[in-house]
Design goal:
- It comes from Heterotrigona itama.
- Pfam families: IQ (PF00612).
- InterPro entries: IQ_motif_EF-hand-BS, P-loop_NTPase.
- This is Myosin motor domain-containing protein.
- The chain has 140 residues and is mostly helical.
- It has two domains: 60 residues; 38 residues, no CATH class.
- The longest helix has 57 residues.
- The radius of gyration is 41 Å and the shape is flat.
Length: 140
């Protein structure tokens, strides 16, 4: 029984050593992650501070004040230009539709398409019956 106790003591010592190493590695990993996070935060803070310092020096300049007042007006002007660019297209489509709705052109179009109607209708009926047959085969 003395050797068994001795073996258990050795096992406990080895196991304790391995657990201590595992804990140390975990603490090191977590510390490195925390350090990387802090470095990133430090970089972000320095960037913000640098930009604020530059803004503080520029905000009193007359051209900057002018720019701040004019910049929103430029966006309004761009929006007006975009609306003007779209307006001619709308008028062309309106006139295109009104030409199609003119009675004489409509009658001519119907007269030209009327002979083809039975043929197209027959094709449509065949395709519908084919689709119904496919659906019934897949469901059945």
């Amino acid at each position: 029984s003395g050797t068994l106790e001795q073996l258990e003591a050795q096992r406990d010592e080895k196991l304790t050593g391995h657990i201590i190493l595992l804990q140390a590695r975990c603490r090191g990993y977590l510390a490195r992650r925390k350090l990387n996070t802090l470095k990133l935060q430090d970089l972000a803070v320095r960037c913000i501070q640098r930009n604020v310092r530059k803004w503080m020096s520029v905000r009193e300049w007359p051209w900057w004040r002018l720019y701040v007042k004019v910049a929103p007006l430029l966006n309004v002007h761009r929006t007006e230009d975009q609306l003007k660019a779209k307006t001619p297209r709308r008028s062309f489509t309106y006139f295109g539709i009104s030409k199609q709705l003119h009675p004489s052109s409509r009658v001519q179009q119907l007269a030209r398409l009327e002979p083809a109607y039975p043929k197209v209708r027959g094709k449509l009926i065949k395709r519908r019956s084919f689709v119904r047959a496919l659906v019934s085969c897949n469901l059945g």
